[in-house]
């Protein structure tokens, strides 16, 4: 049994069409880069930036973004090398399967459900806040019972709020699910258009807002520590774990590997360029909003709007911010709905999930059943739960996956040095080790209840694996047929 749990998958030659209809290869470097930017620029820049500054880091939220970006850059280099070795849609799940064995691969894949599915629900909930604000500015109002979650977390337990469900979050999720269902060309084209619009709007906000920045609001740059995780360096590190959520998704490019025209060349470009662009935009926006308003006033659900509203000369920007936020958050949900079904598809191909998860639509060339399952699951979570509950687990699951990817590059360098690598991590022992240490360091700053929730999530995943995946593993069956009688 232990041998099976540690079994590694080494043959990825049958990725395309081995189990029926193949995915359609339509994405080039620009489309893949847009997927990465589409997944990253959203809730972080429009929601988390202000809250992390107000509650933890102050103006030094800029340092928090830099720390998280450095951690992600080490991991991005490792993803880029893996993408040239294993051009499959399984992302870190497939990479772990090739280096650390089946059980770890399942654990990573199960955590990616958190990264893509649950984070999309959290972003959809954030979308509702900007959407209702946009309607309010136009003189239209939705009843609170249809724009809030029926459950809230107070004093250590769930309580009813009296709301029915979050209708706007459900509506946007189902609309984007339909778009992902009908084809990668259509959904990636819509994402590219949204990325161009939201990046342009963010640049306008940064340039226009910079003229009204008051440098005195940046003093002191690192506020004196007032508690275990409030200001000082402890607050900066805690804020780094929060804004890390903002970077989640840059590796979403690797989930589209089987729809890339030239994955060995284009996937590294898409991963690294998208991370670089997003880091510059995050730092620029963080500097502007903390310079427009004292940082302790930014802890709202719409911190960018709050900062702009403080300056009457920038009232014209409010509309652009809200439109940019709606577009940005929509593209994040869209990319997550693209990514998650492809993880399910690879796990289904490997036998760790039922065969229905491996099906591809004969006309649209998409994992259509997985897309429907993912969309309905995201909509259900967004309808019922508030943002703070949904966001608790996401960063932890992603950090654990990143640790596996960084370690996996080193393992393959020693176990299979002969494999052709069109992209190689420079100074791999140093970069990979720093990547592992950075991710573990950010995990250290997570709260105890997040570890408890992660433990519960892991137990559920193990129950599914040992109840189904272990007995139906395609790798296990192929090895069993090769054993001599």
From TrEMBL:
The keyword NADP does not apply. GO terms for molecular function: amino acid transmembrane transporter activity. The chain crosses the membrane at residues 32-54, 60-82, 94-113, 163-184, 191-211, 231-250, 271-293, 316-339, 369-387, 393-415, 427-445, 451-470. Its main location: membrane. Keywords: Membrane, Transmembrane, Transmembrane helix, Transport. Coiled coil: none annotated. Pfam families: AA_permease_2 (PF13520). It is a multi-pass membrane protein. Gene3D superfamilies: Amino acid/polyamine transporter I (1.20.1740.10). It is found in: Membrane. PANTHER family: CATIONIC AMINO ACID TRANSPORTER 4, INNER MEMBRANE TRANSPORTER YGJI-RELATED. Belongs to the amino acid-polyamine-organocation (APC) superfamily. Cationic amino acid transporter (CAT) (TC 2.A.3.3) family. This is Cationic amino acid transporter 4, vacuolar. The lineage of its organism: Eukaryota, Viridiplantae, Streptophyta, Embryophyta, Tracheophyta.
């Amino acid at each position: 049994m232990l041998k099976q749990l540690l079994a590694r998958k080494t043959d990825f030659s049958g990725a395309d069409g081995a189990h029926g209809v193949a995915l359609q290869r339509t994405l080039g470097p620009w489309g893949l880069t847009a997927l990465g930017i589409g997944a990253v620029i959203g809730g972080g820049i429009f929601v988390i930036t202000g809250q992390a500054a107000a509650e933890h880091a102050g103006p030094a939220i800029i340092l928090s973004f830099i720390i998280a970006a450095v951690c992600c850059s080490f991991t991005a280099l490792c993803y880029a090398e893996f993408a040239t070795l294993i051009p499959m849609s399984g992302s870190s799940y497939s990479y772990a399967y090739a280096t650390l064995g089946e059980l770890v691969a399942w654990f990573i894949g199960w955590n990616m459900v958190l990264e893509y599915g649950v984070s999309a629900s959290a972003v959809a909930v954030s979308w509702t806040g900007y959407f209702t604000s946009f309607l309010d500015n136009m003189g239209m109002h939705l009843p609170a019972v249809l724009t809030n979650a029926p459950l809230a977390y107070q004093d250590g337990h769930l309580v009813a709020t009296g709301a029915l469900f979050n209708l706007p979050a459900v509506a946007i999720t189902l609309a984007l699910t339909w778009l992902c269902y009908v084809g990668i060309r259509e959904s990636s084209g819509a994402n590219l258009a949204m990325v161009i619009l939201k990046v342009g709007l963010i640049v306008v906000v940064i340039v226009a807002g910079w003229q009204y920045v008051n440098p005195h609001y940046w003093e002191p740059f690192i506020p004196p520590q007032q508690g275990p995780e409030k200001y000082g360096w402890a607050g900066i590190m805690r804020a780094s774990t929060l804004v890390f959520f903002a970077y989640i998704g840059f590796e979403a490019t690797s989930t589209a590997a089987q729809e890339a025209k030239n994955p060995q060349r284009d996937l590294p470009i898409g991963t690294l360029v998208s991370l670089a662009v997003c880091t510059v935009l995050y730092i620029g926006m963080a500097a502007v909003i903390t310079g427009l308003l004292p940082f302790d006033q930014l802890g709202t659900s719409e911190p960018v709007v709050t900062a702009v509203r403080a300056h009457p000369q920038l009232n014209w920007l409010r509309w652009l911010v809200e439109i940019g936020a709606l577009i940005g958050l929509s593209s994040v949900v869209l990319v997550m709905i693209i990514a998650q079904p492809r993880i399910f598809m690879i796990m289904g191909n490997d036998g760790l999930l039922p065969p229905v998860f491996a099906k591809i639509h004969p006309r649209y060339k998409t994992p259509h059943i997985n897309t429907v399952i993912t969309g309905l699951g995201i909509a259900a979570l967004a309808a019922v739960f508030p943002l703070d509950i949904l966001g608790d687990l996401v960063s932890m699951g992603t950090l654990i996956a990143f640790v596996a990817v960084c370690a996996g590059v080193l393992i393959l360098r020693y176990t299979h040095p002969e494999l052709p690598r069109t992209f190689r991590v420079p100074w791999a022992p140093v970069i990979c080790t720093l990547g592992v240490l950075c991710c573990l360091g950010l995990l250290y700053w997570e709260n105890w209840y997040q570890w408890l929730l992660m433990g519960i999530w892991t137990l559920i995943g193990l129950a599914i694996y040992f109840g189904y995946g272990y007995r139906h593993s395609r790798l296990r069956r192929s090895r069993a047929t090769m054993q001599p009688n």
